[in-house]
Amino acid sequence: MGAANRELGPRLEDSLATGIFTVWNLTDARTAPPNVAPEFPTPEGRGFGAEWMETMALKGKPRDMNKWREVLLDPNVHFPGESNKYRRARNELLEAEAELRRMNEQVAAQRRALPAGGLIREDYVFESAADGSKVRFSELFAPGKNSLVIYNMMFPRWSEDQRAGAPGGKTAELPLIEQPCPSCTSIVDGLEGAAFHLVERTNLVVIAKTSPDRLGTYAQERGWRNLRLLSSRNNTFNRDYHAETQDGGQLPVLNVFSRHEDGIHHHWASEMTFKRGDTSSLDPVWVIYGVLDLTREGRGDSAAYPNLQY
């Protein structure tokens, strides 16, 4: 991690203890407060650059979840104009949804209970998309947060992906084959909004093989301000953790790591991708398909969707 983060270390410890953080924005380093470099101001990557945005504090009191459950429970839900046929079918679906939820919880418990995976081979060195500074893998863990979720986005995209490129900006000037994947972009768009909340519970990073300059530029163009974005162009992380093919092609993969007393272990990966030959294993972080699954039309054709231009 850059010198700026090390200098801010004591203040970061205080922030984690008090629940008060400063949020930053990657737009213009000249707007930063004095003596703060354009680097991630917290180990979690709460902000992406050096523009002062706001101070956030955890406020209020926890909800009484038993009372909230009482508010929500209603065994006689009906909607205007529905027929008996609809209600019978909906109740059958409701039972199936309840069973699916039970299975999801069971699978999540199995995932959490996995024994420790292999220790990381090396303390990989990445480059920050904020300013190109070097960041070690071990430095991606904030104090008190022992899990790390990494999404490998395809930037560059699959060489045979002919979907539209970036609609404008410097990224649009790149050859299409060197531009980012539209599907990965839609995932990161969703993670951008969630990152603000996730940082309170875990560490989240997005990694790409492209240069830090290109990744930082694309982040500005997309308005990604809450995510920590790193380039893996000079290490073997992507290859080691199945986010890169033997010929150098990039793959969209989720990996989760866990910090233990004896070091950092691999915990879980979206291996269903390799079993099914599709990217449905990314559904937990892919907002658009969760929404489309609720519609009568469903997901539709995924060959041309999502896209960078509509």
Main sheet makeup: 7 strands, mixed
Q: Do you know the CATH topology of the domain at 116-292?
A: Glutaredoxin
Shape-level CATH architecture of the domain at 116-292: 3-Layer(aba) Sandwich
CATH superfamily of the domain at 116-292: Glutaredoxin
Tell me the span between the first and last alpha carbons: 39 Å
Q: In total, how many beta strands?
A: 9
CATH class of the domain at 116-292: Alpha Beta
**What overall form do the CA principal axes indicate?**
globular
Return residue spans where pLDDT drops below 50 for at least 5 consecutive residues: 1-55
Rg from Cα: 21 Å
Structural class: alpha+beta
Overall residue-averaged pLDDT value: 86
Q: Number of helical runs? A: 9
Order of helices and strands: HHEEHHEEEHEHEHEEHH
Fraction in beta strands: 15-25%
Strand order of the main beta sheet, please? Answer: 4-3-7-6-5-8-9
Q: Which percent range fits the helix content?
A: 25-40%
